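Bumping with the actual sequence this time:
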Amino acid sequence: MVKHCTHTFRKIISTHNWKNKPSIRTYCLCCKCCGHRWKVYYDKKRKKEVPMPPRYKWLSTDDVHFILSDSRPGTEIAKILKVTHQTISQVRTGQSHKHLFPELPRSNSSNRSKLVGKDGKSCRNCKHWWQGKCGLDIPEAGGAFASECSYFED
């Protein structure tokens, strides 16, 4: 049995063209054998793989655990880790690094508090909510309005 992945059988998960460096392309790869994931940076002009640009900081496993377990605001954590607050938000909402620590909770949305009332009611959970709007045509409907609505039904 092989103790480490040789990355012989790899598949491309996604690609990304850089806005400021159009000749660089990022490939997100996954090993077909063990599921290990990594990124490769390919220079189309030189036609070879290049190292990661030094100005970008990638999060380590410990950083991701810290982000998910700390209750401080994302801007404070971003200053500590020297990354953008968007990076913190992407980790917390599961848009990035979702394969790490699946047992730790992630928020569904950064503005979830606006969508759910204090009593836990949301228009989206109402029986009358249909195709992204109120089926009763109440103009104020949406988000936390359900706690004030007299027609709200689970």
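The tokens above came from a reply further down the thread. Helices lie at 61-69, 74-81, 85-92, 112-115.
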